[in-house]
Amino acid sequence: MTRRTLRGAIALAGAAALSLGAVATSGAAQPGAGRAAADDVKIGLLLPESKTTRYEKFERPYIENKIKELAPGAKIDYYNAAESATTQQQQVNTALAKGDKVLILDAVDAKSIQSSVQKARAAGVKVVAYDRLAQGPVDSYVSYNNRKVGELQGKALLAALGSKARSGEIVMQNGFPTDPNAAEFKAGAHSVLDGKVKIGKEYDTPNWDPNNANQQMAGAISALGKKNIIGVYSANDGLAAGIATALKAAGMNVPLTGQDAQLDAIQRILLGTQTITIEKPYKPEADIAAEMAVALAQGKDVPKSLTPTTVTSGSGEKVPARLLTPVVVDKDNIKDTVVKDGLYTVKDICTPTYAAACAKAGLQ
After folding, report:
1. Taking the model in full, what pTM does it have?
2. Per-block average pLDDT, block size 10, for the chain (364 residues)?
3. What is the rounded CA–CA span in Å between residue 130 and residue 142?
């Protein structure tokens, strides 16, 4: 081999080594970058209130645990708006200032939060609408089929009334008007009940407040006469608690609906003072929200498998969505629903006050 050829071979070998080194360095950098991205996941979780037990007892820990499972180094900033739309807007500002990359947002007021969602978009922050569809440029949405919830409630009330459906009047107590879900529950219930029962009184209940529901029910009893009221549509279990108290005070026990599968509602169902509730298993919804948020925080698209449908928000945006299926809970299927799903144990439900009713329902 000539000296020139030898020098060429050495040069080629050196270039090859440099090239391999670059590839190796590039290959090493990618996993490192991936780990950094995973560790750099910053998510703001904004829930609307704490009066309803679902948020603090179930959904917050479910969402946080799933995020940590998917991205162990994730940082989560938690906020609860205590039913104040103004507070929630301020909390969005705080989350943006802290550098959160994704917001999981359950809006107090879907309309008024729009400006905050737009502010997040302008800052390059993604928004996952959770349970309630906020207005504005939301990136993805997970909830239950809320119109279906109302339909199931209406059908259950009709079934409980049976042949008595036209023998008197019902009272409808809907949810908070600024909650877009409340409008869907109401529309679903009306689609089933209209023309089949007479609605004597109907209310929209501010802040989903049981005390307001109690006062409204007492007013309905006074206005209609307790002998004329044959049933009550209640949009959720919190309202049902206030309604049940008013009914008991008047010496009444009529079919009563609910939603959210709260423990006190399950116990009322066992006693016969509430007819049904609607279970929307929290863990599947929470897990999906966490998966959406982590993917977005890591700079990825939300997998199509998580958003098989599209919904239109109140501000006209088309939002990729996942809508889960709600379940009716009555006295006969408590064990196969809320107990099987891990919401409560039999021990949780069957305290001494409810022991006899539990035994009768086969829960002990």
Report:
1. 0.82
2. 43 41 37 47 96 91 98 97 96 98 97 98 98 97 97 98 97 94 96 98 95 98 98 97 98 98 97 97 96 97 96 96 97 96 95 96 89
3. 5
Euclidean distance between CA atoms 196 and 348, whole angstroms: 38
Strand spans (E) along 175-220 = 198-204
SS (H, E, C) 307-361: CCEEEECCCCCEEEEEEECCEEECCCCCHHHHHCCCCCCHHHHCCHHHHHHHHHC
Residue 7, judged by CB atoms within 10 A of its CB (0-12, 13-18, 19+), counts as exposed
Handedness of CA 206, 210, 213, 215 (dihedral sign): negative
Which H/E stretch holds residue 13? helix 3-39
Burial class of residue 84, CB neighbours in 10 A (0-12, 13-18, 19+): middle
- Cα–Cα dist 179/257, whole Å: 19
The number of beta carbons lying within 10 Å of the beta carbon of residue 121 is 15
**Dist. CA 358–CA 114, nearest whole Å:** 46
Residues 6+ apart with CB under 8 A from 122: none
| Structure token pair of residue 85 | 């739309």
> Got the DSSP string for 48-82?
--SSSHHIIIIIHHHHHHHHHHH-TT-EEEEEE-T
